[in-house]
């Protein structure tokens, strides 16, 4: 099985490799640089989800993969607080689309205020943590959880949801075909 992934981000690719190992898939992961089609800093669940879908669609169009995956991080506001959010999309060669969202965590006001002023979270967390390219490693989630979770873990959770839906869809389709014969 060939799995195309609409990113070159090492943290996201590590999550896909973890899925392949966890599910014991005979698969190869192909990284394809894609554009999310949304702002560099998605500001809602809807925009972040759309970015994941666009990445998956683009990767599928640019490859001959069996399935394609898009992963996107962003922020969303709920009850006056800004949360870190993440979304994923999986599209198969037949055009079936599956989406899922993962864990959310409140951003400290220092970060959310910076985002409201137009800054990208990736740049803010680098400055805040005094590190470089946090988004390609532990991610903001790693900083905010004091290393208890990292960006790959967060996206791995989303990938389990996506791949589970994908497997369920084809299993239930097979069951329905048997029952309706």
TrEMBL record:
Cofactor: Mg(2+); Mn(2+)
InterPro entries, per database record: ITPase-like_fam, NTPase/PRRC1, YjjX_NTPase
Domain (Non-canonical purine NTP phosphatase/PRRC1): residue spans on this chain: 6-160
Keywords (A to Z) from UniProt: Hydrolase, Magnesium, Manganese, Membrane, Metal-binding, Nucleotide metabolism, Nucleotide-binding, Transmembrane, Transmembrane helix
Catalysed reactions, as listed in the record: XTP + H2O = XDP + phosphate + H(+); ITP + H2O = IDP + phosphate + H(+)
Transmembrane segments: 154-172
EC number(s) reported in the record: 3.6.1.73
Domain of life: Bacteria
NCBIfam families recorded: PRK03114.1
Name of the protein in question: inosine/xanthosine triphosphatase
């Amino acid at each position: 099985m060939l799995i195309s992934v609409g990113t070159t981000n090492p943290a996201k690719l590590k999550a896909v490799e973890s899925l392949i190992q966890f599910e014991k898939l005979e698969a190869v992961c192909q990284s394809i640089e894609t554009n999310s089609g949304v702002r560099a800093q998605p500001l809602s669940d809807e925009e972040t989800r759309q970015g994941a879908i666009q990445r998956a669609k683009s990767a599928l169009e640019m490859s001959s993969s069996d399935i394609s995956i898009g992963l996107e991080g962003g922020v969303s506001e709920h009850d006056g607080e800004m949360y870190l959010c993440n979304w994923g999309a999986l599209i198969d060669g037949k055009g079936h689309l599956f989406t899922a969202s993962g864990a959310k965590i409140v951003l400290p006001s220092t970060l959310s205020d910076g985002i409201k002023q137009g800054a990208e979270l990736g740049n803010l967390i680098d400055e805040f943590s005094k590190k470089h390219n946090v988004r390609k490693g532990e991610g903001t989630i790693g900083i905010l959880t004091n290393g208890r979770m990292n960006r790959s873990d967060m996206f791995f959770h989303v990938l389990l949801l996506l791949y589970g839906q994908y497997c369920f869809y084809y299993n239930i389709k097979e069951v329905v075909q048997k029952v309706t014969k």
